[in-house]
User: What shape does this take?
Amino acid sequence: MLVVGARPQFIKSAPVIREMLSNHREIDLSIIHSGQHYDREMSEIFFRELEIPRPLVNLHAGSGSHAAQTATIMNRLEHFMLTEEPNLVAVPGDTNTTLAAALAAAKLGIPVAHIEAGLRSGDILMPEEINRKLTDHCSTLLFAPTKTAIRNLKREGLGKSAYLTGDTMVDALHIVMPAVLEREKTVLRRYGVQTRGYVLVTLHRPSNVDDSNRLREIQLALQKVAESSRVVFAVHPRTRERLVKMRTLENLTGTGVIVTKPLSYLETLSFLRNSSCLVTDSGGMQKESFLLQVPCITVRSTTEWPETLEGGANRLVANPQIIPTAVSDIMAHKAFRERIRPSKRPFGDGYASEKIVRIIRKTFRGSA
Ligand code: UD1
Assistant: This one.
């Protein structure tokens, strides 16, 4: 049973699902959607673009406080775990859906496999950090994307269950790249921007957007960036909600920032690949920008992907006032792109899903 529910989980799971369906038909796979993300552009589009089959069920958990959301998912999921009797519950990433599914399964005595295990930012106030730690500690199989993640797991006494597989997001990127190359020109034309002629922005972390003073500071910084470069800001529903409440969304568009709804996976990669710089607080996008050799400014003080910091490819900028200077510095550095070395492949070789499915198969040979 594979449990997903939020946008990044659809991406992380798609190559694993594809591997099972193409090369391991003997595995009886049930996909469950928690319903944590429910808007068309946060969920359905990803299923379509990544060719993920329809889930067995959508639990429609929706939004709520952390406790309410996690509890609703656990409560509704338990019923399907009891009727489906899975041999294994697989959970990708670090969202509330990840933790809810891992906890529900562990308490029923069902083995859990964590895809993207061992990541640590060191910031325990981050909801995802709590989800990662607890999920790792109730999992039987830990699929680590990087050597750093393996070290983190060993440090917490979890080394025996850990496997270095690489990152399934690299697999996903490889799968969709031909479609991105085919479509990117049309995407850019639709928004009236040109290759290397704009800065791409995505922000959704509670630590950046929930506090209106901080969000206002970030907004002012983006407006300043927009004085010297075009800015494409793909606004997450959480961020939109806050900006609407503060009545400042119009200020952004008024200053030349192109504000878009949440972008699909293919649109995101099209925009990212052609941008001159990314400003983000997303974990996944720090990595994607590294892989696509786009310089990145991360609006946070920590990262769970320290490999991206190598050679200055990604810079942590916690103070919003510094964002405009950081952006112009990173773009002025002509040799920058050569300094990003994805050839070292810190996130694996694009075969993480094959390895993951092979290990699952080996562990459960004979059962199912
Ligand atoms: C979640 C994950 C985060 C991940 C992010 C990707 C947790 C704790 N966080 O954060 O790790 O990086 O997804 O997007 O699980 N909303 C909509 N439509 C939707 C979904 C959400 O409008 O389809 C609104 C909700 O009303 C809520 C806000 O977005 O106000 C937050 O949604 P939620 O899923 O709780 O957390 P994210 O911030 O998306």
